[in-house]
Aminobutyrate aminotransferase
Amino acid sequence: MTIGVSNEEVLDLSNKLFSSILLEQKKFMGLKGPDEGKENMNETILKEYEQDKGRGFFFNYVSSGRGHGPFTELVDGSIKYDLIGAIGPNLLGHSHPLYIKAHLEAATSDVMMCGNLLTHQEPQQLTKEILDSVKGSRLKHFWFSGSGSFANDTALKMLWQKKDPAHKLIAFQKAFAGRSIATQDITYNPDYRVGQPKSIDVDHVPHFDQNDPEGSLDKTLSALNELVKNNKDQYCAIMLELIQGEAGFVYGTKEYYEGVFKWAKENNLYIWVDEVQSFGRTTELFAFQMFGLDEYVDIVTVGKALQACGTLFTEELNPKPGLVAGTFNGSNAALNAGRKVVNYLREGNFYGEDGRMKYLETQFLTRLSSLAKTTCKGKIGYAGGVGSMISFEVGDSTKETTTKFIKKLYENGIISFMAGKDPVRVRFLLPTCLTDEHIDEIFKIIVKTADEVL
């Protein structure tokens, strides 16, 4: 199916341009310091940008738009490993052929953005690819949103309409749901809503406790039973991230989640799973598929690695006309890339016990565990995560120590970030394109940084 203008000349030029772009981007394939005379270029740009934006930046980073695989170049000419991927979207790494193709194909179309009123083929094809990937569940529909927070807002509106007037929500401690007016109340960390009025009624219960796995379900169910006892028929749903990203990649077992979900069904509550960050990054395309929870989910929100955001929902939760709308589905380039990415992940060897995600998980957790027992004993502690979502603790795992480590890691050539609170953890969102040679170099830098900081 042709999208946009196409003839032999356009196809020939597009193929030549694709090859030229990819060959140029492949020149940026290794660590490098700043170019002579450009050492202060990042600071100069960011200082001006800070004045316009109204706040500073965590990293001294301005992208040049050049890079390949796990590597990204800054405007000062330096090249670093990108192990955070803009906190999730860049799952395949930099200048992946699918991304380049998606951009070039979108350039043949007549507009930049695709909307809800007058649709294009890109959102229809991406929707079909997503729905094909959840055939083992009861999820039947998908609605695009402008961000992960708005996808969660859409989910909440659907649930409220269906359960009206039961508008209270149950969420989990250490949850992060976004920064919209509604989702900031679902988010557990009070620092993210200082000075904000409470907009929605949310009660938080304990999540899976890594330090007490056997007692976790009883603790959660006890808290849940207490809530429904005191607020009978007031709750619409239970909302959770199966992999708690902001908490430092905390997750439970299948038995734990089944126990919680069976309780929810017995108490006539819908089950809402937030996969905005975990989508595509666990050992199955969806985390709920990894845990074998397909039969339970009623509504699932996705984003980041999808290159778009939206809400999957059952026929039962299909809203009445007028409840959900919006101008944008997304850019044609992003929607085109999203379809390519999902198809690539589904058709490639990424999932299952022998898939790429499991390999990355094993490589990083095994090596981190080894360091914690040997050369970095006392410097690196806990290490955990799943698939391409990896976290570990350094030193006393305080925010001050972890920030110092992350900043030094950045200076030494690796971009990461942090997650969690008491303890604070170093967070990696790994690109799928890492080779064993890359991983070897990354761990040499981790050891060097640990020695320098700790």
In short: The mean pLDDT is 97. The longest strand covers residues 139-145. The chain has two domains: 31-90+353-453, 113-347.
